[in-house]
Specification:
The complex is a heterodimer of chains A (about 260) and B (about 230).
Chain A: H1 5-141, H2 145-158, H3 162-174, E1 178-183, H4 189-203, E2 208-213, E3 221-225, E4 228-232, H5 235-264
Parallel strand pairs in A: 1-2
Antiparallel strand pairs in A: 1-3, 3-4
Helix pairs in contact in A: 1-5, 2-4
Chain B: E1 9-13, E2 16-19, H1 20-40, H2 51-70, H3 75-94, H4 108-130, H5 132-137, H6 147-182, H7 187-218, H8 221-225
Antiparallel strand pairs in B: 1-2
Helix pairs in contact in B: 1-3, 2-3, 3-7, 4-6, 4-7, 6-7
The chains are: A alpha+beta (about 260), B mainly alpha (about 230).
Chain lengths: ~260, ~230
């Protein structure tokens, strides 16, 4: 039961060696591993926290963007509706204008058609009247229409008012002694002579005559001397007839347009 | 009957001798070092670790926490010394479960050696922490009259450390030996189990007391006052 001092010294040395060994192989690696793991866990926690914050930020950003998108969508929809309304109004107005223009054009065309018809009708009537008159005159008076027209013309010449006659004479005298006689038909030499005598009587002098055919005159005769003109034709008698026909046609046209507008409304 | 493993001598040359105490200590050192090396050579720093590593971590953390509880703020500085004291004594006492084993802690030479280590470690850590002047000043606290008493307490507590461990372990061994001769069946097993418990408690007491002494030496006078 005594202390063996060599053993004591040996055990002290052994103990110091053991301290070094355990420090080297036990405490240091274990504590380092613990630190590393702790650091790793802390890093992961921090990372998770960061990711959470990031996710929150992303979510907020997404919500904000979504709200903006909704607002933009709403605005665009409103704009689109407004634009569509405006476009609709514009198109309707354009369509109305087009319809009006078309209507006007249609009216113009109708009017032109009416005018053409009237013109044609007028000419037909004139021709008919001419032929009817010619035939009636020929049947009734046993003389042809030309002769009657010439006689009528000569009557008118002699029935000229004083002032008119003077004007004619003066204008005749102021230029060349030449009279142009135009008629709708070829005048027979007897009739030509008759006219020559009548004019010569009117002017009181022998004159040079020039006879020409002008179908437009329709059973009429026209004399021209230095720009002064004297004329007679059936046209005058037809005027009243044309006027009546014209009025009748206008009435008809009016009733047609009235009916159309009623049907539209 | 040999009361101490010192008495079993394998080889002797004058002052130098190789006895059972030294041989057993070497064996324990080998077991501890190799086991540590085996487990820590493949340490993992991941979140998933092996069971052996987990066991070692538990032991190291437990020792570290214990040191911290005594009042040492930086347990890592002292874990090498205090932890080894505990592990060595605990292992030495644990191996009594093996038949014909004689614990080296049952030798007064070993316990003296450990007590001497503690005795030397106290001024070593104290001076390292506070400087030689502040450390020496602690012997004349609160007055210079206390100097002899402080010195006596220093020596007596070291002596007490050595005797306490030796007495407990040796007595356990002797009781088992005596019981073996009186009642060779069952009783020695119970006493051995009791000896195992005593051995663990003694390992704990020895390291805790060493920690308390070191803590007292390294504690700041300022912090002590507060």
């Amino acid at each position: 039961m005594k202390i063996d001092w060599f053993t004591v010294i040996a055990q002290v040395i052994n103990f110091i060696i053991l301290v070094w060994l355990l420090k080297r192989f036990l405490y240091k690696p274990i504590l380092n591993a613990l630190d590393a793991r702790e650091k790793k866990i802390n890093d992961q926690l921090a990372d998770a926290e960061n990711k959470k914050a990031e996710a929150k930020f992303e979510r907020d950003e997404f919500i904000r963007k979504n709200e903006n998108f909704d607002a933009d969508k709403q605005q665009l929809m409103e704009e689109a509706v407004t634009e569509t309304k405006a476009e609709r109004e514009r198109l309707l107005k354009e369509a109305r204008n087009d319809a009006d223009a078309l209507k006007k054009k249609q009216l113009a065309t109708l009017k032109e058609l009416q005018n053409n018809l009237i013109e044609e009708f007028e000419q037909n009537v004139q021709r008919e009247v001419f032929s009817v008159s010619k035939k009636v005159l020929a049947d009734i008076a046993s003389i042809n229409l030309e002769e009657q027209a010439v006689n009528n013309f000569i009557e008118q010449l002699s029935a000229l008012k004083e002032t008119e006659r003077n004007q004619f004479i003066q204008s005749f005298k102021s230029g060349e002694n030449h009279v142009l006689v135009q008629s709708a038909f070829n005048l027979a030499p007897a009739l030509q002579h008759k006219i020559e005598i009548a004019i010569d009587n009117l002017l009181g002098t022998a004159t040079a005559f020039d006879f020409k055919v002008k179908p437009d005159l329709i059973a009429g005769i026209e004399i021209t001397a230095n720009g002064y003109k004297l004329a007679w034709s059936i046209s005058e008698y037809l005027d009243s007839l044309i006027k009546n026909v014209d009025e009748t046609e206008s009435e008809k046209l009016k009733s047609i347009t009235k009916k159309e507008s009623n049907a539209k409304s | 009957m040999k009361l101490s493993p010192d008495e079993t001598i394998f080889w002797e040359h004058g002052f130098i001798n190789l006895n059972l105490t030294i041989a057993t200590t070497w064996a324990i050192m080998l077991v501890l070092a190799v086991a540590s090396w085996m487990i820590t050579k493949n340490l993992k720093k991941d979140l998933q670790i092996s069971r052996w590593q987990s066991l070692l971590e538990i032991i190291v953390i437990a020792i570290s926490n214990q040191i911290e509880e005594i009042g040492i703020t930086q347990p890592r500085k002292y874990i090498g010394f205090i932890g080894t004291l505990f592990l060595y004594i605990a292992t030495a006492n644990l191996f009594i479960i093996f038949p014909w084993y004689q614990a080296p802690t049952g030798s007064i030479s070993t316990t003296t050696a450990l007590a001497v280590c503690v005795f030397l470690a106290i001024p070593f850590f104290g001076i390292a922490e506070k400087g030689i002047k502040d450390y020496l000043k602690s012997y004349v606290q609160p007055t210079i009259i206390m100097l002899p008493f402080n010195l006596i307490s220093e020596i007596s507590r070291t002596l007490a450390l050595a005797i306490r461990l030796f007495g407990n372990i040796m007595s356990g061994g002797i009781i088992v030996a005596i019981l073996l001769s009186v009642a060779p069946l069952l009783f020695p097993i119970i006493m051995n189990a009791l000896g195992l418990l005593t051995g663990m408690v003694q390992a704990y007491i020895f390291s805790i007391l060493a920690t308390v002494y070191i803590a007292a030496a390294v504690k700041n006078t300022k912090s002590m006052k507060t």
